[in-house]
């Protein structure tokens, strides 16, 4: 295990790493904490000294485009009902239980995709509950430190996971630190930036990865995984966050919008040019204009009201350009392009989703490789507990995101398809005298994707029965599958003569 001195050294090195700085910036922008919040105004005074201007308006408005871009990708990928598949039905049941319909796992996967997008990388770790079941949880991406065994005194690889647990009654920040290796976890704690000490509240410290009781409750089972149970999901090969491509555009949008607000605030009131003021000072003039709305002037005096037109058109045009660029280069879905959703065609929706779909397809490869490592662990545990021989190659992954469609257009397409099927069935029925009843029945079953042997078993046993008996069975089957009684309508239109089936 690592010593307290080693842990502090790795914490300090990690805090200064460029990768973690990018990740923290991504987290800030996801939470709406943009650079515009630090924007300040300055001017040179009469002596040429640079001073901060506290009189002019300085509105600071962050626009959380980044959170929308990240969440769009997460929800689009996670809209797939099933992710893991296998031809083995027993194994498919295990995958459904552990992955496809496991709420904890799907939440951990969604958190990982979110962290990978906003930070550039993400972590998921596995623990074992008291019953011996694996539980996957998401870890804060900025709180995980990879330690190469070459730089540790014990020569082993480690994962340091640290997070702020709470602020105690005295106002001290309590940080929990976990040192994971291939066999166990050692728990540490630190108050503020003080000494790193063993966590006195941990019941078992160090704690083996596997620690649970058997069914009878008498035997305590403990062991290590033999590997560090942390799995990393990268956004790309360089572990760069999505923010890398859109940060300058978001900053520019924030600046343009805030500057427009400042202009409107600063020039909201007109300027009064007063001639022949009959008073003592300008303060009295300002008070009279603000409260009494009147001011006294001499016989030759007067007031000219001067207003300033804010050149907002150029700023609005720039804001629209920045918004389009953010969604374009951030590869997201710009809902402004789908103004009238009721009249939007399916093709228009598909085009609007094209960039988001492209971005998610790029990340899909990273997610599949990430899931492959997790499935290997799940199958290995299943093989040991059930004496099975499942392999990772028996499983494949497929994401089928759900894209909204125009319901009215879908209904029209369904109607056309039903009418086409009706016409084709009528054509088949008109060929009865040419191809024979048995061949006709086979073609109808083939066209309707029915089991011919099943249909044949339900036909009348009397070989002299006419085709009406067969059609009655077909009509019943169509009613079950929702084909709309095409066979019945086909009989009336085609006027098929009776014959033997």
Tell me what you see in this structure.
By secondary structure, this protein is an alpha+beta fold. It has helices at 4-15, 18-30, 65-78, 89-100, 103-119, 243-266, 282-292, 312-329, 346-352, 354-386, 407-430, 432-435, 437-448, 452-457, 467-481, 486-494; strands spanning 42-44, 50-52, 84-85, 121-128, 134-139, 144-147, 158-167, 173-180, 184-191, 196-198, 207-208, 210-213, 220-223, 230-234, 271-277, 297-306, 396-397. It contains 16 helices and 17 strands. Strands 6, 7, 8, 9, 10 and 11 form a six-stranded antiparallel beta sheet that branches. A three-stranded antiparallel beta sheet has the order 5-4-14. The longest helix is centred in the last third of the chain and has 33 residues, at 354-386. It is flat and about 115 Å long. The termini are far apart.
